[in-house]
């Protein structure tokens, strides 16, 4: 599989089904700490300003497209991705596959109440999947090495990181070798949704690319400025790339910056 570049950021043209197969193969072959970083519109904007995050994406082992806007943008730019691989959907898909194949998982993130509830729910819904360990995501930098050692001792197949971005990418990259898990997947706020602390958008809103709007309705004070800035920046970036693409086609002598090119 050859990666693509969208707005200067790496994205892998992979489907949900192939992503699950990739994880299963990584576990079966007992590879060490392969990192999945899903990329959505907000992360594209962040990574264009945050070189450390961009490097984390570039060095990840798999970078699926997370979010309908990313898929739409790829199609408008003439280099279509096969479909979105939403981080939360991938989490549930891996839980289901883990239940079938008796994987072990470590759940790290959210607050204590949420992570304990997530553990209870996972044990009930996926009885054949073993929880090798779980811990809340509130800890100091001084505590990190101890937590990493605990994860390494647990020998889980998959580590799910319930941190925000770019914290989860930084954590995974910083401790990749020491964690001793087969696959690391950052799930963001998915634990809060699984525990019922927050709601996920209805399916029709997910398909319409409006999950961000549903979340805005739930947390208007916290999310308004974030979505205003990132969504506006993404739309402006897309418009710029579309104009550039048109000019290159209209005037072949011009050089494109390769928004939809291959790596």
Outline the secondary-structure elements.
Blueprint: E1 4-6, E2 9-11, H1 16-28, E3 34-36, H2 41-49, H3 51-59, H4 68-76, H5 87-101, E4 104-109, H6 112-125, E5 130-135, H7 144-154, E6 158-162, H8 167-179, E7 183-186, H9 190-194, H10 203-207, H11 211-218, H12 220-250
Parallel strand pairs: 3-7, 4-5, 4-6, 6-7
Antiparallel strand pairs: 1-2
Model description:
The structure is a single chain. The protein is α/β, with parallel strands linked by helices and 263 residues long. Helices cover 54% and strands 11% of the residues. It has two domains: 13-195, no CATH class; 211-254. The protein has helices at residues 16-28, 41-49, 51-59, 68-76, 87-101, 112-125, 144-154, 167-179, 190-194, 203-207, 211-218, 220-250; strands spanning 4-6, 9-11, 34-36, 104-109, 130-135, 158-162, 183-186. The protein has a five-stranded parallel sheet with strand order 3-7-6-4-5, with helices on both faces. It is globular and about 60 Å long. Residues 256-263 have low confidence and may be disordered.
């Amino acid at each position: 599989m050859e990666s693509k570049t969208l707005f200067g950021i790496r994205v892998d043209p992979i489907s949900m089904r192939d992503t699950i197969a990739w994880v299963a193969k990584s576990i079966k072959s007992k590879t060490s700490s392969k990192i999945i970083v899903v990329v959505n519109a907000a992360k594209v904007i962040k990574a264009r300003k945050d070189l450390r995050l961009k490097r984390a994406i570039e060095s990840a082992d798999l970078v699926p497209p997370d979010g309908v806007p990313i898929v739409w943008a790829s199609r408008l730019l003439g280099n279509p991705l096969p479909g979105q691989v939403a981080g939360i959907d991938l989490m549930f898909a891996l839980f289901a596959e883990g239940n079938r194949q008796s994987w072990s998982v470590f759940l790290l993130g959210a607050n204590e109440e949420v992570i304990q509830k997530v553990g209870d729910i996972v044990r009930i819904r996926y009885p054949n999947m073993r929880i090798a360990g779980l811990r809340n995501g509130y800890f100091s930098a001084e505590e990190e090495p101890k937590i990493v050692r605990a994860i390494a001792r647990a020998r889980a197949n998959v580590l799910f990181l319930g941190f925000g971005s770019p914290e989860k990418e930084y954590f995974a990259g910083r401790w990749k070798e020491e964690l001793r898990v087969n696959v690391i997947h950052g799930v963001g706020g998915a634990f809060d949704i699984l525990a019922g602390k927050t709601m996920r958008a209805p399916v029709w809103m997910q398909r319409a690319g409006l999950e961000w709007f549903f979340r805005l309705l739930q947390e208007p004070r916290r999310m308004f400025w974030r979505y205003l800035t990132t969504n506006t920046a993404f739309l402006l970036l897309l418009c710029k790339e579309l104009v550039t693409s048109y000019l290159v086609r209209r005037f072949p002598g011009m050089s494109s910056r390769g928004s939809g090119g291959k790596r």
